[in-house]
Every structure is written in structure tokens, then in C-alpha cells.
Amino acid sequence: MLPYRSSGRIAPSDVAWLILAALIGALVAGGLANMIGQYFRIVVPFAVALGVIVGVVGSAMIHWRRFQTPAIAAIIGVLGGLAAFSADQVFDYLRDRHAITQEMVRVVDRLGGDVKAVRSHGNLSATIDLLMVRAGRGDKINLINSLSMLGDEPLAGNARVGSVAALRGWLALRHRSGVSILIGGQRERPGPPGGLLIWAISALLSGGIAGVLFFKAAREPVCSGCGDWFEGSSSGLPAANYGFRDHVRQALEQHDANELARMFPARGLHRKHLAINFRPCKNCTEALVYTELQRVRRYSAKRSSTSPLLRGLLPPAAAQEIAVALKTARRRQREEAIRKIVRPKNQHRR
After folding, report:
1. HSE-CB for 320 with a 13 A CA cutoff
2. How many CB atoms are closer than 10 A to CB 7?
3. Are 62 and 24 contained in the same domain?
4. Same domain, 190 and 270
5. Within a 10 A sphere around the Cβ of 43, how many other Cβ atoms?
6. Are 35 and 155 in a shared domain?
7. Residue 228 falls within a domain, yes or no?
8. By three-state DSSP, how is residue 154 classified?
9. Which residues pair with 278 in a beta bridge?
10. Count of alpha carbons within 13 Å of 30, Cβ hemisphere only?
11. For the chain, where are the alpha helices, taking DSSP H only?
12. CB-CB contact of 223 with 287 (8 Å)
């Protein structure tokens, strides 16, 4: 059994495509989270969803470009998840700016002023910037008095739409007011440092989940002959109970199909057992077969988790022989178990 090593090739174009996919996923995830967040928002599940969306988009790009550098993919994934969380906050910021504009227009309309002139005024964006800066400092805001700033000509030259100072003021205001979360069916708004802590946890969750999904996608095995992914599922054939891991590893490295078949438990597998996964290349019939020895934890009939213990390459003939031996051993074990159930019933009838 030969060891499997990823080529680790890095092409600048592949990195660029992956960064583009992460940014697109971040914008899509942030936009969706912000639209849904107008009606309800549960911070931690939203952060998980942000990371999953970015991870799915990035994983698709990794498989399309055959990206084989897990470390770089993970870094890009983490940055993409953080970008998605940031995009959600920026969309919130832009929506609040729009809400202030609408409120100013309503005030002018109630006072009998020219609404169109307010909307098209050159100082409108700069006025909103100053309002956000003052709100961030904790000053009380009076929209009627703020309308007088529209006539101050220097404003247009001293501030611009979406200025950094306005964004800092908005963040300071959000930090003081807290983050809306749902605890025990009741909506709460924890203030500092609770709000800041929840923001940090949410950002780390988004980045971490996206990074893990990127890493797993880039770690998938690739055929060295044609450069395509090995086909097949991630689940393998049951082989033995976990206590025989050293013997199974040795038999697998020696291509000993008979020894592997003898180690298949006659009384069935434990919840923690071993499986062997074979994934051939769909393009190269004579290529080595990617083989993985897995540790399986079975929690229920439909729920289990796997983790790799050994990864390598086997000749096609050896992989086929071992697969047939394991399937035969499993079939015999099931047939024997059925006979043990049926035999006492037949004896009872007699």
C-alpha cells in the first residue's frame, strides 16, 4: 500500500477564482441574512448559516478548479466567512442610513416642505454621516434641528457618503444598544460587553465553519494520472471492531484479503468499529485506487461519524479482492445471524 500525498499545486488563477467565490458567497450570505433579519434574528444560528453558505459556494469552486492546497483554502474560507459576517453588518448600516433619510423626508413632509429638494440635496448624505457620528458619541439627535445642516455648504466638502467616521459612529451605537438575541423564547438585547462578545463569537463561527468546509473540500483525494477527483462516497465497507485496528492496518498494507475477512466479527460490529473505503478513478482504469481506513462511531441506525486513520493507494486488483472478501464475510455473518433467529422458532413449532 503506497502512501497518498496531495500534489499541493498552487496556480494563481485558481487562488483568484477561489477568492472570487468566497466574496460572492459572502455577499449572497450577508444579503440573505440581512433580509431575513428584518423579521427575526437569532445571532448564533445566523452566524452558522453564513459560514455554511460561504463554505458550500467555495467547495463547489474547489471541485471545479481542482484546488489541492487545504491550508490556503482554509485561510480563504475563514476570510470569506468573516466577510459574510461583515457584509451582514454593512447591509444593516446601509439600511439604517436609508431609514434616517426616510424619516427626514417624513418630517419635511409634515412641516409642509419640499420633499424632492431634500432627497436631491447635496448635503443629505453628509448630514446623515454627522448624525451617525453624533449618535455614536451618545448625543441626542433632533431631526428637525438636523435639517438646518442641509443649508451648510461646507458639509459636502468635509464628509462623503458612507464615511468611515459615520460607520464608526454606527458601530459604537450598536455596541451600546446591544445585539438582539432570542433566549428561552424571550428577546433580549445584552449591552457591553455582552453584545461585543456575541459579535465576536458570531464572527468566529462564520469564519471557522467556512474555513473547515474549504479545508475538507481541498483535502479530497485527486488522481495523479488525470488530475480528476476519485469517485465514490465517503462511507466504506465495514471491516472489524476498533480493537483490531493494528491488525487491520497491517493486513491492509500487505494486501491480505483473507486475513481481513477472518477478522470480520461473527457477532456483529460494535458501535465503534473500522471500515475500509475504496475510491477508484473514473477516468483511469489502471490507476491506483485511493483507499482509506476509517474509524466509525455509530450513534443510531441512521447517524454515524467517520474519521480517517490511514490513507493510501492500492492496485486495482488488490482493492477488488479485499472488497469482495469483506462483502462475502459480511454476507456470511448476516446469514448466520438469521439462521440463529430462525432455528429456535422451527424447534419451537416441532
Report:
1. 7
2. 11
3. yes
4. no
5. 18
6. yes
7. no
8. coil
9. 291
10. 23
11. 12-37, 43-65, 70-110, 115-119, 124-137, 143-146, 155-158, 164-177, 194-218, 245-253, 257-262, 316-349
12. yes
Domain boundary among 218, 250, 267: 218
CA 97 to chain centre: 30
List the grid coordinates of 18: 477561489
Length of the chain measured in residues: 350
d(CA 182, CA 129): 31
Kindly report the pTM of this predicted structure.
Answer: 0.73
Which alpha helices (DSSP H) does 67-163 contain, by range? Answer: 70-110, 115-119, 124-137, 143-146, 155-158
Residue 94: inside a domain: yes
Q: Counting Cβ atoms within 10 Å, is residue 5 exposed (0-12), middle (13-18) or buried (19+)? A: exposed
Backbone angles phi, psi at 186, to 5 degrees: -115, 140
Cell of 291: 483507499
| Domain encompassing residue 106 | 8-218
Give residue 133's identity as a one-letter amino acid code.
Answer: V
Q: Which residue has cell 418630517?
A: 107
54 and 19 inside one domain: yes
pLDDT, tens digit only, all 350 positions of the chain: 788 877 667 788 989 999 999 999 999 999 998 888 777 777 788 899 999 999 999 999 998 888 888 999 999 999 999 999 999 888 888 887 777 777 777 766 676 666 666 556 556 666 677 677 666 666 666 655 555 555 444 444 444 445 677 777 777 776 666 555 544 445 555 555 566 777 788 899 999 999 999 999 988 888 777 777 787 776 788 889 999 999 999 998 898 999 998 998 877 788 899 999 998 888 887 788 899 999 999 888 778 888 888 888 999 899 999 999 999 988 888 888 777 776 655 555 55
Q: Are residues 13 and 126 in the same domain?
A: yes
Number of domains in the chain: 2
